[in-house]
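Anyone else keep sequences and structure tokens together like this?

Example one:
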Amino acid sequence: MFISVFSLIACNSENGASTDEVKTLRLGHIQNEADAWHKGSLKFSELVHEKTNGSVKVEVYPSSTLGADRDLIEGMQIGSVDFALVAGVMSNFHQPYSILELPYLFEDLEHLEKFVYGSEGESLQEEMLEETGVRGLEFWLRGPRQLTTNRPVESPEDLRGIKIRVPDIEASVEGWKALGANPTPMNFGEVYSSLQTGVIDAQENPIAFTASARIQEVQKYLVMTDHVFGYVQLLMSDKTFEGLTEAEQEAVLEAAEEARIFQNEIVFDEEERALQMMLDSGIETIEVELEPFREAVQSVHRELADKYGQELYDAITNLTE
């Protein structure tokens, strides 16, 4: 018996820290297990375990198990959530993020990448950390946001009177108002049933997100508006980060970078498969002329740039010059 116990302890020590020393951390996100977010999260967990020799274990909780976006951010601030994948709702905690959510701010994916992986993106994350106690580890790419509706939309005029679900983000609310729609902030978990019962008429999200929630079952049209080239951030509670050893901190940062590369490589393949699934289900796509949509939101650009940071807005728009 003594030999068996000793062997177990030695085995644990060989593979990393002993069981008592393992730090078990939690990562939450709102997507389901089929999504690229979840696959990237599992890769991050695997990499952290590998790079810390087992001293840190990351458990992944999909499908809002640890709460919606706001809950996850608040949890990271107090240390009850260790990691999260969060998109634009961070703007409610660090206001300059509001500018990133402006419709038609980024011209294309390359424009977005220049910002998030450049010095301006790094500065924004440093400011967020100082204000909120939430540490930005990496920006992950997403497909552009597209509109789904139950009636054809070919121009901003066709949006009049449409009740559209939007995330609780000022830029989204004001942008869709400027386009003529009636925006309704709502947790995404309520969207399917609200479309099914007619509480709302439309929603907007990247195609993979839309398809994974089976929105094509309750919507007739996929309108290719390309209105936001967005991101999701892998975030970490700074309380948790400071509780790690220096070697563990470095391992987490390395794992985050490698998981970002992994997720960015698979996310657009996921988009293509999701689009084909939606088409196979019978949803009809509508290609629109983007310029009228872009022109309609310029007043919102001016308003939010003045409110949350003209310098940041100009830095982003100047990246295309």
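And example two:
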Amino acid sequence: MKISMSEKIGQTVIVFLLSLLCLSVLYPFLYMLAISLNEGADAAKGGVYLWPRSFTWINYEIVLGNAVIRHSYLITISRTIIGTITGLLITLLAAFGLSYRMLPMRNALLSYILITMLFNGGLIPFYIQLYNLGLVNTFWVYIIPGMFSAWNMFVMLKFIQGIPEALVESAELDGAGPIRVLFQIIVPLSKPMLAALGLFTAVGHWNDWFAGAFYVTDQSLIPVQTFLQQLLNASDLSAVFGSNTNQEALARGAQTQNVTLMSIKMAVVMVSALPILCVYPFLQKYFVKGVLIGSVKG
């Protein structure tokens, strides 16, 4: 099929604009990486944009050698794994149950869930509820409130309704119960949707700093993103690291004027962002396929 000149020009313009968009997204990441790998005092002079001018590992030695950051990483990894698995499981069970059209009060339940998507009680009532449930200042404040997602439930529901009913009916005729139907028929056919929603849920848990900042006062329970938020608002390193700082690396960096607050901030940003970025390439193919099918089929 021959492409006209106007179509070629249009495609060229689209490619050019998308390339600019990619550069605008990639450049801040490269800039932070360059600052984190550069001596702090040298970077403060300016002129470091895409690659380090005076290369050093001292910033990462301080960050990775700090007990506070290592523990906050453990909290973040734990909440991401547990929160993603429980969130998908509870939401999937709700969607599967509501997929049965003969379920008593099904329409009322769907309407009730829809209302929770449109309205909420506000931050203060939510905090009071968490306090009364004994979740404030505990690890489970990261897990239990996010176990069910109304949006994910509707996406799962539409996807399940798109599966041919003949498959479910044939399994039920062979004596399969609801649990067997769910895990042997529904789940294998829903892998693209579950992968996409699982990734979105995991990213939400990994990037969440709000819960750690407002629902937790124990520093041993804060996730790495809350630690990063505290660091970005700090005026000096001791305000956040305190006595747990890697004093040897910090002293060596200070003697050579290698360490500044900005260089440490950039190193923490890179350390907190890289792990979740490494997950995207493996699940990228499921993004459009999983969410689009779940949103359209019905």
